[in-house]
Task: inverse folding
């Protein structure tokens, strides 16, 4: 399979970014106004570089979203709406994982279980099929896979190496050994090897340590990761252990990775609950990196790190403080669609 299929890296050319508009029927209802501002800023950033495909629950949601985006002077020629049912808006985990074929695409439709049954997810689990029925995708073959896997749990370098965390995959599949999971991921995702991290977590994260909150490829020989430089912080020891693990990883030709540690934002607490403010939850688009910003002095330092990790790409901060109230950030609510897919 690996000589016919390839899992592209996020920095490869894209057609669009897929998102779902929040509405009163989602978990955003209590703070809908705040999160809408983030979505408006996100769409404004996306359409500077490529198209945005926005899932909407019904005609009313579409009309409202169109009005809000138009009033923000967003180029609506670069926005497309598709009406499909969904439970919530975390499309990184319910959207399609796309492999490139020699001709066309393969959309991997893994089971989405609401992060191990934590939340209702029956509609989200049917999202890819619903989008395919609406003919959103071109020249694509869908492959349903009866195995729980979220897009935020994996990161690919485009050259046959996958990065993931043992905590998340073991939590979803406690009966499977690391060797078994490595074999399954390598087969389905057309990978030559899987790199596992045993350390790393964020308070306020309910994904069981998704890799996209912790460490990401910036190139086949470079990794950006969330660091913690405050010894008094509850994350310090675990993120230091993760940093040591990452430093010990090697590229396919045996060299250490170039490493880019991200700064640590001051604790953000909501109602006594620590929220997961990770700068690693960025989204790569054509010519740019959209970076979650939290209104913290570390935002500027994070921009500087990403400028070094992604030379030649514009770093665009997007205000994401409202998102972390629901335990995710910018990358979590988006799914890039490779060039030619839509």
Result:
């Amino acid at each position: 399979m690996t000589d016919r299929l390839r899992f592209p890296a996020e920095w490869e050319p894209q057609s669009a970014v897929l998102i779902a508009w929040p509405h009163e029927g989602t978990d955003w209802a209590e703070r809908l106004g705040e999160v809408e501002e983030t979505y408006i800023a996100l769409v404004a950033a996306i359409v500077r570089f490529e198209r945005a495909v926005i899932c909407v629950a019904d005609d009313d949601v579409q009309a409202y979203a169109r009005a809000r985006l138009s009033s923000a002077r967003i180029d609506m020629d670069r926005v497309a709406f598709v009406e499909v049912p969904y439970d919530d808006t975390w499309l990184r985990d319910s959207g399609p994982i796309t492999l490139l074929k020699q001709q066309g695409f393969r959309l991997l439709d893994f089971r989405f279980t609401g992060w191990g049954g934590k939340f209702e997810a029956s509609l989200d689990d049917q999202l890819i099929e619903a989008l395919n029925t609406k003919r959103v995708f071109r020249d694509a073959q869908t492959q349903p896979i009866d195995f729980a896997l979220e897009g935020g749990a994996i990161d690919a370098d485009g050259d046959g190496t996958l990065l993931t965390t043992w905590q998340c995959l073991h939590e979803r599949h406690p009966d499977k050994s690391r060797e078994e999971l490595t074999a399954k991921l390598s087969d389905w995702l057309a990978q030559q090897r899987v790199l596992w991290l045993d350390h790393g977590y964020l308070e306020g994260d309910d994904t069981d340590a998704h890799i996209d909150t912790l460490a990401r490829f910036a190139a086949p020989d470079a990794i950006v990761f969330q660091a913690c430089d405050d010894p008094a912080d509850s994350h310090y020891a675990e993120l230091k252990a993760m940093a040591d693990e990452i430093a010990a990883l090697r590229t396919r030709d045996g060299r250490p990775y170039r490493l880019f540690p991200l700064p640590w934002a001051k604790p953000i607490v909501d109602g006594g609950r620590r929220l997961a403010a990770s700068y690693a939850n960025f989204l790569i688009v054509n010519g740019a990196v959209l970076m979650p910003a939290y209104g913290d002095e570390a935002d500027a330092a994070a921009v500087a790190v990403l400028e070094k990790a992604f030379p030649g790409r514009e770093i665009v901060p997007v205000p994401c403080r409202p998102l972390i109230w629901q335990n995710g950030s910018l990358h979590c609510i988006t799914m890039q669609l490779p060039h030619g897919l839509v």
Notes: The mean pLDDT is 97. Residues 14-338 form a domain with the L-arginine/glycine Amidinotransferase; Chain A fold (CATH 3.75.10.10).
